[in-house]
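Long-time lurker. I teach an intro course on protein structure, and each term I like to show students one example going from raw sequence to a predicted 3D structure in token notation. This year I'd like something fresh instead of my usual example. Would anyone be willing to generate the tokens for the chain below so I can use it in lecture? Attribution to the forum is fine with me.
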Amino acid sequence: MYHFVSKAIGLSPTEAAKTSGWDDISDKIPYLSIGMSSTTNPFDIPARKTAMAGPKRDQILDAAERMIRDRGFNGVSFRDLAHDVGIKSASVHYHFPTKADLGAAVARRYTERFVDALGDPEDADAIPTLIEAFRTSLARDQLMCLCGMLAAESGGLPDPVVSETRRFFERTEDWLSAALSASPALGDPTAASRLLAELEGAMLVARAHGDVSVFDRIVAPHIRQPETAHETSPERAGG
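-- Reply from a regular --
Happy to contribute to a lecture. Here you go:
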């Protein structure tokens, strides 16, 4: 697993996030990884594993999502999942007869959670919210976008997994198109695809460098800067 360098030396990743200017936005986003709340410490992997609640099927999906986002679909085995959840491999097969069934279910659930977490595309903070969802994967989760990982492997994936991966990009692009339509400067037919590609690529490059600030630099042009009120001086007002 990769660990990202913080520009704020001596601070934990969580503390560094608070000093980076992203904290106000990240508070609005549910923690997307394995269905945990945003108040859960994402670096506390052992606690996260033992605290998983609900039926075994959900626990298997949680473990599979985390592993795929870290090492890819082809790097996950039913044996790994069984060990992580604390069950026998036969129990994994009971819920998901094939790996294709498992991969499709993980991607389908991830897509629904991701789009739901983004909220209303017409909100003023829609685009920053999307960007922070990707950034959170790097800075807090230490993981890649699930469907970005799957897309990179799509040439060797079962058809059901490829279909669900494509669905993620279609739904996210639809959401982005709606968000960008409010901006004449960005509302062109390719804007949503280009921005999504840029975010996925920024995650990849930042992960290769092990430095989330690389992601920040790449996406910086898409972050709306706070408007500063300019008061007119008496001299200017008088002409």
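Some talking points for your students: Residues 205 and 214 are 7 Å apart (CA to CA). The two ends are 62 Å apart (CA to CA).
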